[in-house]
């Protein structure tokens, strides 16, 4: 009986010791695992002089600038390729590096070389031009003659070059009647609808256009025109022609990828050539050359049907001394 009591007491003592070991081991294991999860603090860079530390920081900043410039150039190159593939035209904006990094930091000059350690400069990035400029995917590029679908940007109505040209024939409708004497009988002049040809060219600046142009217009006399007395008609073929040069100003506004609105203003100088022959009073040539101020203002539109050429049409009012007229025009325009 006594032996059984002793054995039970020893058994309880063993359980108590085992429990104490578990209680003490658990916090120690948790503390050890927590210490292993803590991040390792990086060692601080060592510099033997303030000049060396300054040089190191300058190299780090210079490398960061080069990396940002390289990334910006790759993004611009990707955008240019996107425009070439999807729109069939070049991207309008040229690339400018966000950081000017022309000067490389120079290491400090030391009078005595101290062997305190080996300095390793930051890794510099080298940007290499890629001749292929490959993208992650490829699509078919539009061929000449197929309609493109560019968004409005910069050079508004076509895809390449800052220069523009416009060729627009038109139909003129004179609305003013002239009456006067030029050292002889009184002349009453009224004109029929006629023909005009306008040619202009210049450069674009975003949505603005600045250039020069020239216009030719010809209108024959109406049957109601007379010289001396009413009923004394002018000879067949009597007409008025104007040849003028002007400064061409314009502004465009994009409505859709294929359609633009355009406003134009022209100011210049020219000469009117008036051939007014009478049927009875004289058969000799009485051609007059009258210098005249020329002005024009109009509204038009451009429809992009090709990647190189657009259809340009609209209305203009032609102001001059002899034959002010309304003009309806339709022609072609492009970039160079």
Explain what this protein looks like in three dimensions.
The chain has an 8-stranded antiparallel β-barrel. It has helices spanning 2-37, 50-86, and strands at 163-174, 178-181, 186-189, 194-205, 208-220, 226-227, 239-256, 259-275, 287-304, 309-319, 325-335. The longest helix is centred in the N-terminal third of the chain and has 37 residues, at 50-86. The chain is built from 2 helices and 11 strands; from the N terminus they run H-H-E-E-E-E-E-E-E-E-E-E-E. It has 336 residues and is an alpha+beta fold.
Summarize the structure.
The chain is α+β, with helices and mostly antiparallel strands and 336 residues long. 22% of the residues lie in helices and 36% in strands.
Low-confidence stretches: 1-7, 139-155
Radius of gyration: 43 Å
State which percent range the strand residues make up.
Answer: 35-45%
Strand order of the largest sheet: 1-4-5-7-8-9-10-11
What is the overall silhouette?
elongated
Count of β-strands: 11
Helical region count? 2
Helix content: 10-25%
Main β-sheet description = 8 strands, antiparallel, barrel
Structural class by SSE content: alpha+beta
What is the topological layout?
Blueprint lengths: L1 H36 L12 H37 L76 E12 L3 E4 L4 E4 L4 E12 L2 E13 L5 E2 L11 E18 L2 E17 L11 E18 L4 E11 L5 E11 L1
Antiparallel strand pairs: 1-4, 1-11, 2-3, 3-6, 4-5, 5-7, 7-8, 8-9, 9-10, 10-11
Task: Supply database-style keywords.
alpha+beta; 3-stranded antiparallel beta sheet; 2 helices; elongated; disordered N terminus
């Amino acid at each position: 009986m006594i032996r059984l009591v002793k054995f039970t007491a020893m058994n309880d003592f063993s359980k108590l010791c085992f429990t104490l070991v578990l209680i003490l081991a658990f916090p120690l294991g948790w503390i050890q695992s927590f210490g292993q999860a803590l991040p390792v603090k990086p060692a601080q860079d060592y510099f033997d002089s303030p000049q060396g530390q300054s040089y190191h920081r300058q190299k780090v900043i210079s490398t960061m600038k080069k990396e940002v410039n390289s990334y910006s150039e790759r993004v611009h190159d990707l955008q240019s390729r996107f425009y070439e593939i999807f729109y069939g035209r070049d991207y309008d904006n040229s690339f400018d590096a966000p950081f000017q990094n022309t000067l490389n930091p120079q290491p400090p000059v030391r009078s005595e070389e101290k062997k305190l350690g080996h300095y390793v400069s930051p890794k510099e990035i080298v940007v290499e031009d890629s001749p292929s400029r490959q993208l992650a995917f490829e699509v078919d590029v539009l061929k000449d003659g197929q309609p493109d679908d560019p968004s409005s940007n910069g050079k508004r109505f076509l895809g390449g070059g800052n220069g523009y040209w416009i060729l627009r024939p038109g139909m003129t409708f004179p609305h003013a009647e002239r009456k006067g004497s030029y050292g002889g009988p009184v002349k009453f002049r009224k004109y029929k609808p006629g023909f005009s040809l306008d040619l202009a060219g210049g450069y674009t600046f975003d949505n603005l256009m600045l250039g020069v142009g020239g216009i030719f217009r010809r209108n024959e006399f109406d049957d109601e025109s007379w010289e001396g007395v009413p009923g004394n008609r002018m000879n067949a073929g009597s007409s008025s022609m104007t040849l003028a040069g002007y400064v061409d100003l314009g502004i465009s506004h994009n409505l859709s990828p294929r359609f633009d609105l355009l406003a134009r203003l022209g100011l210049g100088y020219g000469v009117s050539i008036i051939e007014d022959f009478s049927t009875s009073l004289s058969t000799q040539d009485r051609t007059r050359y009258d210098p005249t101020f020329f002005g024009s203002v109009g509204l038009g539109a451009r429809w992009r049907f090709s990647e190189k050429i657009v259809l340009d049409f609209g209305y203009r009012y032609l102001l001059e001394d002899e034959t002010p007229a309304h003009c309806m025009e339709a022609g072609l325009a492009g970039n160079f």
